[in-house]
UniProtKB/TrEMBL annotation:
The keyword ATP-binding applies. It comes from Pedobacter cryotolerans. SUPFAM superfamilies: P-loop containing nucleoside triphosphate hydrolases (SSF52540). GO terms for molecular function: ATP binding; ATP hydrolysis activity; transmembrane transporter activity. Keywords: ATP-binding, Nucleotide-binding, Transport. This is ABC transporter ATP-binding protein.
């Protein structure tokens, strides 16, 4: 289970942003909605261990993540949390397979090429394993970023505007893949978006006002 309790954050000199309490059960799929500037990215950073809130508690699988040392938190994030950004952010000088094995070693897990192949196959891009990011289309790159996010079978899969730079066909495919991949690993899925095309697919919604 993932929960936030009494969480608020104040950037230097700015107004406090408060987040209502939120409990997410394992395997649930949630949409995170809010107008521009309401704090979606801030909350995603808090949930993924990137930003320690000025107040409150964040628990993932019974671990109060901001009580961990920064080294332990890095490893926890690598193993338990997969993140998909609006743009893929892959390492250009590494092949697709190498980008994925790097995510394994970053999480201090052994390199597992079978797992790399399994994930690329389930996302329909196994033939791209030796290619470099510059050789892939936008939709294929977004699939690789999903592959990188799920490679370590995370508990929590977080996507920040994953479809906004894609056309209708790719947006629908990426959304379906995200939901399918989270289902395969029984991962919890949280998707932050403005994208109207995405909203109907979710029953659970957390709204920022
Ligand atoms: N590093 C920062 N330093 C100071 N203020 C910040 C910082 N990051 C965000 N903010 C402010 O915090 C508020 C919430 O920003 P945030 O990026 O979380 O919103 P958002 O809902 O993700 O917006 P958008 O949909 O436009 O990306 C905004 O008022 C923003 O200006």
């Amino acid at each position: 289970m993932i929960s936030i309790k009494s969480v608020s954050h104040t950037y230097n000199g700015a107004q406090q942003i408060s987040f209502k309490d939120w409990e997410i059960n394992n395997g649930e799929q949630w949409l995170l909605l809010g107008q521009s500037g309401s704090g979606k990215t801030t909350l995603l950073h808090i949930l993924t261990g990137i930003l320690k809130p000025t107040q409150g508690e964040v628990n993932i699988d019974q671990t109060s993540i901001y009580q961990l040392s920064s080294k332990a938190l890095d490893q926890f994030r690598g193993q338990k949390i997969g993140i998909i950004f609006q743009k893929p952010h892959l390492i250009k000088s590494l092949s697709i397979a190498e980008n994925l094995t790097m995510a394994q070693s970053f999480a201090k897990l052994p390199e597992d090429l079978n797992r790399v192949d399994e994930v690329l196959t389930s996302l329909g891009i196994a033939d791209k394993r030796a290619a470099y990011p510059s050789e892939l289309s936008q939709g294929q790159l977004q699939r690789v970023s999903i592959a990188r996010a799920v490679i370590n079978k995370p508990t929590l899969l977080i996507a920040d505007e994953p479809t906004s730079s894609l056309d209708d066909e790719n947006a629908a495919a990426v959304l379906q893949l995200l939901m399918h991949q989270s289902g395969l690993n029984q991962a919890t899925l949280v998707v932050a978006t403005h994208d109207k095309r995405v909203k109907d697919a979710f029953t659970n919604t957390y709204s920022l006002t």
